[in-house]
């Protein structure tokens, strides 16, 4: 079997690579990309088999770069999702003592998520911005002297050979980021499981008050719950929206198909980005009348009405 | 071709027979029935081919006897509807003068619908109740002396050989009754037209607040309008309802099928009583995304998502 | 204290009088009326203090004569409701034996509700229609010879001095009719209790698809359940409806007031027929956010937003 | 009169300062802030009277930094909004020729919004990232030599004394950003106009499927349209959302108050961020039954029902 090639939001040692390690075998090739569009572009061009990118953070919300890069360009398919807890380590070259740390380099998001811990444990410290937490670790390993420690994840501390001064650094210890594995459009659909998710992009009919309500009723009428909804601009003028949506269930489920048919009929644009097992693996709780057999027996009944009875 | 046999709500000369005359050929046999259940029973037993019965009156509302007789018993199919304007004539034996009329026999509904006309034109007149307006005409023709004139429809005045003293008697000249032609379950469905109606019986899930709202959303989500809704008791306890519904469209329409599937999935009982051309012949105005081709292209799209792309 | 005068749907001994006896003291005057409109007319004219009339039957559904007589004419107020189980006795002059009964007189509704019992217990028996079950008893007491027994309620058997041949005659032993006590518009509102009902008449905006759905959402948004809904024609043309509605709660409840305000704003006609304790006395189960204090604290918050903060 | 102090998203010359110039008088003091939270913090601390910050971009969508900074921290009030078209100039030191430009510095968003123009007009050019478009202009004015031109707005070209090589640089000439003026909580509410907007933050009841639908129905039932909706994480776990919403109308409008009351009753958190005239000045189109007089006459009617009529 040929080893898989994965592009991911780099550089080496990012939380994204931690997510990637959950799904890739040892023989896989990991190709860091400078940003999310670049990681997806490699899949679109066939340079990698899959891309791993973040889609949602429990603190920062939806990752617009991912949502928009999926929307713009040729079709892609999400085939899986992974959760990574967002906790940091404070890492430095061997010999550095915690009390010597006066300047910390990290990505502004990382800094924001650890401000209280730093104030409580280190007092008045200067933030030296980096383009990613892993980049801070890389710079430190490369001999940077304009800061004393990097606030990064455990993986990059290890990969860049740094010493961990403090573990479990985080203001919100439950912070988590959701990552997705994205393949080309012709990748086979993952099999149905009891706890699937389906990701969609839906544009609303313009100039219609209540259009969002009407769109959501397409889901409600078939008993399909949403687990994520993000509004994104269509881009041509203010006040025109499309929505990035995760709903419960698999496109092989009748109720999800009925939702998709309803959306396709009534919305100017619907795109399907895949059905895949949810990371939390909690089985979807079906409402009465929404199982596959409810749909098929209803269809049989209607078909019978159309037949001549002789 | 064998002449058709029609049972109808009798006696001879009722508004129902006027409706029947709109659809029957000269060779048809007209069989009066004592009440609506009897007229439908003849169809169920194969004694007649079709029954004509009233279903809705613009003044009195739904005709419960018809709605309930359709619901209870073996399945029947509505194959057409007819509108009959409800205006009366004042009819009497030859020689009677309008100014001599002091006692009028008619059905209480007929009396109720002409009270103002009578007060304005005849002053203080006594009502002698009859079991139908045609029965009053029949009694008059049979020599009844306890009243001076019958308030009946033009047909029964003619059939019973009475002289018309006044025409167009009605407080509300726009009053109209809708009648239906009902056949056995195995009668062929009428062909689709641009202005069809479908008649249903739908029982709500019990003990669920908002169940009526949820049921109506099954129609709204597919852009199907209701033209009649009547609540009827399920019969086992107060507060348990079923609904008799006319909606726009034909069961051969995809949007109507989608409604039926949704109702079948979520309601404990759905019965289909037929799709047939509406009497007013005003084409149904489709909302965007609800035409057959919208459904079929949406289904094709979803089917494509399920295929392997290799 | 002056004794109350009650008009009711007569004649003496009807189920309606049984309902009346649940609420009237011994000194009350009971005035039978020939029909429901007449009973209500007496209240409108001040000839009686209250009327007792049926409004809903678990088998036959809403009583249109009552619903329409409330709607047409000057305003009235419902101040209470009573439930009466609908079971019959077979009554005859002393000496009649059950096996001699070959012809039974009763109202057609009574006949319909006992058909199976009669077939099972008496076999082939002829129905002699009467205008009410009590009228059958009265005729029997008056010496009528065209039938052998009256199918009536226990009260009229007693009042007309008949012997009971069989008790508990009913196909559906749980059949029940709901009656209401109706006073003039200026009667004081009954006090709030934990299990009130409010009765309304609501006309829909014409020519608006989804108007019923929109109207029901006025209730749903405030968490107010419906316990009865009947469609009635507006009367000017087919397809124009108004609804007779019972909802849970009292007009003194904030959530019911909010519903009424919403209906008044958006419907061409809303009439209030009273708030009164429900006969079943089951406390209304409030949904979160719909108690009076939820409304008043929300209003205070909004009022605070409008104040200048200096 | 004391001159007003405005903090804004700096540095000098940003699009934000262009928005600020639309509302500030010549005597106003403009205080640049390093980021949006800092600009708002100055208002919270009383260091400035108002802050001007971006809230929504027609291409990039909602500005999360602004939405989240409004939500977190003490209450603030939006008192106005301004639109600024997003078009750029290519600016350089005097003497630079367009054909010499091989390296351009600008913010990544600016670069993204002009990529096609640059490819068409300049061919293969290198992007040198800057922290804002104004920062690129400032660096160029400060003598930076690692790029040849700054892609910035006209204001910063002027402020930093640069020569404009090309005007109207933009891939989408209709791109526009919406900015808001934010004051402290005790600032007086702007007066009502025919085209107001109200900004809210609403948290959904957790673990309730259909919660978003239910929340939107609070708006629909009162005929209040949304002009913007953004989902933001509550922050404690994935799948828990709050929404940042702009709706039509002013908190002094009865229909908006009714929405606020409904939201306050049913949602765990509702925050009001102000009512202010919309920048586009198109009057809100009222739906029937939603004007102030509709609410007040409905309330009077309900109040009358509660009065004793004697």
Distance between the termini of chain A: 59 Å
Chain oligomer state: homotetramer
> What is the name of the CATH superfamily of the largest domain in chain A?
ACT domain
**Overall SS class of chain A:** alpha/beta
Helix and strand pattern of chain A? EHEHEEHEEEHEHEHEEEHEEHEH
Q: How would you describe the shape of chain A?
A: elongated
Helical content of chain A, roughly? 25-40%
Beta content of chain A comes to 25-35%
Q: How many helices of chain A?
A: 9
Question: What about the largest sheet of chain A?
Answer: 6 strands, mixed
| Residue-averaged pLDDT of chain A | 91
CATH topology grouping of the largest domain in chain A? Alpha-Beta Plaits
Parts with pLDDT < 50 across at least 5 consecutive residues of chain A: none
* CATH class wording of the largest domain in chain A: Alpha Beta
User: What is the level-2 CATH architecture name of the largest domain in chain A?
Assistant: 2-Layer Sandwich
Q: Give the strand tally of chain A.
A: 15
The tally of domains of chain A stands at: 3
Largest binding interface between chains: A-B, 37 and 36 residues
What is the C-alpha radius of gyration of chain A, as a whole number of Å?
A: 23 Å
């Amino acid at each position: 079997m040929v080893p898989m090639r994965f592009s991911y939001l780099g550089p080496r040692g990012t939380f994204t690579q931690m997510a990637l390690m959950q799904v890739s075998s040892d023989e896989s090739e990991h190709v860091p990309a400078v940003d999310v569009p670049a990681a997806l572009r490699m899949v679109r061009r066939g340079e990698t088999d899959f891309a791993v990118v973040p889609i949602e953070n429990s603190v920062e919300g939806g990752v617009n770069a991912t949502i928009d890069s999926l929307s713009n360009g040729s079709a892609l398919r999400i085939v899986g999702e992974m959760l990574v807890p967002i906790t940091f380590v404070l890492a430095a070259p061997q010999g550095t003592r915690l009390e010597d740390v006066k300047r910390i380099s990290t990505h502004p998001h990382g800094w924001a998520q650890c401000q209280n811990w730093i104030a409580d444990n280190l007092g008045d410290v200067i933030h030296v911005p980096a383009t990613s937490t892993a980049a801070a670790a890389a710079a430190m390993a490369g001999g940077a002297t304009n800061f004393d420690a990097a606030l990064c994840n455990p993986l990059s501390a290890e990969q860049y050979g740094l010493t961990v001064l403090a573990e479990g650094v985080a203001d919100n210890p439950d912070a988590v980021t959701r990552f997705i594995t994205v393949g080309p459009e012709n990748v086979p659909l993952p099999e149905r499981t009891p706890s699937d998710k389906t990701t969609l992009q839906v544009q609303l009919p313009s100039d219609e008050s209540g259009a969002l309500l009407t769109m959501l009723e397409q889901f409600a009428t078939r008993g399909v719950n949403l687990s994520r909804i993000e509004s994104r601009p269509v881009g041509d003028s203010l006040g025109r929206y499309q929505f990035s949506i995760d709903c419960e269930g698999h496109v092989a489920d009748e109720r999800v198909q009925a939702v998709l048919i309803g959306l396709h009929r009534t919305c100017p644009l619907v795109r399907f980005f895949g059905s895949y097992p949810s990371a939390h693996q909690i089985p979807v709780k079906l409402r009465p009348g929404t199982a596959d057999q409810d749909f098929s027996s209803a269809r049989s009944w209607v078909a019978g009405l159309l037949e001549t009875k002789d």
